[in-house]
Amino acid sequence: MRVSVCVFILLLIASGLKAEDGSGLWLRNNFASPVNVVGSHKSTIFNVAKQELLNNWQGKENATINLLVKKDKRIIGDGFLLSSDKIQANTDLGILYGVFELLRQQQTHQTVSEKVYNPSYELRLLNHWDNLNSSVERGYAGKSIFWRTGENGLVVTENDKRIWTEYARANASIGINGAAINNVNASPDILRPDRLERVKAIADILRTYGLKLYISINFSSPKIVGGLSDSDPLNPEVINWWKEKVKEIYTLIPDFGGFLVKANSEGQPGPQDYGRTHVDGANMLADAVKPYGGIIMWRAFVYSSEEDDRAKQAYAEFVPFDGQFRENVIVQVKNGPIDFQPREPFNPLFGAMKKTAIMPELQITQEYFGHSTHLVYLAPMWEEFFHSDTHQEGTGSTVARCTDGSIFKHRTAIAGVANTGTDTNWCGHHFAQANWYAYGRMAWNNQLTSDQIADEWIKLTFNPETNVRVALPEDWSVNFLKPIKQVMLESYEASVNYMMPLGFHHIFQASHHYGPGPWWERDGVRKDWTMPYYHNADTIGVGFNRTITGSNAVAQYHEPLKSIYGNLETCPEEFLLWFHHVPWNHKMKNGNTLWDEICYRYDSGVKQVRQFQVVWDKAQPYVDAGRFDAVQRRLRTHAHDAQIWKDACLLYFQEFSRKPIPFDIERPI
Ligand code: GCU
């Protein structure tokens, strides 16, 4: 008996099967056939590509695959041409991406046909909000995978190297080619020599899978680390300090990517501290990294409490600078004008800054989506964002086309705030892995649908067949793939429903952003950090008036959006309370009053999550016990939380609407 158990365990280890803990992410393949790989380029990445193919080939036994590094004008950047017997690319990295695409098609049972795959964005980054003390800001999956504390915190261990290698491989498999490895609220210490040694060690590993390394910097570093009297970007000593620091970094890391900067935002230092502008700050740094091919990603996430409407401020501050940034500066803009809320209209900066490279910043970590407890697949939200039409250069000027080089010819880039940590399954919730996966896939191709990505991810992550040449079992597709995909696709809208339907935003409990807190305010706290600022409920109605009679934020949108959003009758209902202060008895399109509709939306969100529980319970025969239990447990909390959201918000807003809730309230608390 004992012997057979041992043999079984050995077999599991030998096959690399990582069934129950989720550590294998979507790279769980444990079956390979022999294959001949032809191609003799000599580089680490090329060898890695070859090895991936040899280790994971699932096509015809003893087939021959040609890996060909040869320029072809149909292939752009890290793109590749894939056919059933050949991968051709301009670069070795293109070959690696081609190999991962081929393997993905095999593992998801697709027929490989000849096609060119080019990336939508040249730079596809993760931003880690990892602190040097190993905590992760808005991180819900354990500690930092890059930074450790303690006496030996800076010593690079074999375990560190293993984690960084698996991390790099996972990213390469979905086309991510860069990572900023410390928090945008940056500690100046990142620039001290001992930290830079560790940065170098990380860069050396990420490079093997084609990832470039970037760091976030603190604008006051010349003063704090360098001991200068100030950090004024026009002070020659400061300029020189940065030049020397950059030289030091490039000596350690010759292919270093550049800096990510959060300046004059939420208390962080910046050029305005010295009466200078974003342009002064960004260009000074851009000049320092330019000789080495580096870039500066300068964030546009700025707002101050003095203004009447936070949603207007990034646009107001940045649009006047259009055309003044160096060509190696990319302005990084969050998808919405406030802050990664459950649903926001797109940030009006997209398409408006025509002479500046603009990159979208998405949030993969679920700061405003129930952390790693709620099951929320974010791809539908990103899909909605990419397809939003800015109308800036005529109809069809979608955010995707405004940022991916189709309309404006600047460098293209995209960033996602990572959800990774030291948890065994990397992301806290097994389904949160899907958001990391989806981000990478959409950064590679911003036209992929959330449906297609969910389909791929489920097959790769939960496929019961180790040998893909055996067709997927019919019952698995019908009883698992289909309903689980449906859950994923509905989960985003469900969250919007039970948290912030109809354009509500930022009514979270202050600071942790997990539960509801539409009532939250304190004496002495700046207004835009209190919640009634965002919903403005009174006895007449609710919502933020951003029309011409209010803050007039609608004016930042190009026509016809300005008129559509600005008119209560034409404003899409999902943005109603974002743009309007609406009377409680306003008639909605379905005939309900606003108040009743708010009640029903909250209620339908709760019902949706309960339905997800039912679906998951039925999935038990198709999932290993470890992952089944973990997801089931979280869904239980998720449903309970959804109910709390509904009851708390409805009871609170009822104080203003003074109307009955059209169903029995459950009061779980
Ligand atoms: C949000 C988030 C902060 C973060 C900030 C940013 O406000 O809550 O933790 O630092 O965004 O993106 O800079």
From TrEMBL:
Coiled coil feature spans: none
Keyword Hydrolase applies: yes
Lineage: Bacteria, Pseudomonadati, Bacteroidota, Bacteroidia, Marinilabiliales
GO CC, any one term: extracellular region
PANTHER family: ALPHA-GLUCURONIDASE A (PTHR39207:SF1)
Keywords: Hydrolase
Presence of keyword Hydrolase: yes
Name of the molecule in the record: Alpha-glucuronidase
Single GO BP term: xylan catabolic process
Domain Glycosyl hydrolase family 67 catalytic: 106-426
Superkingdom of the source species: Bacteria
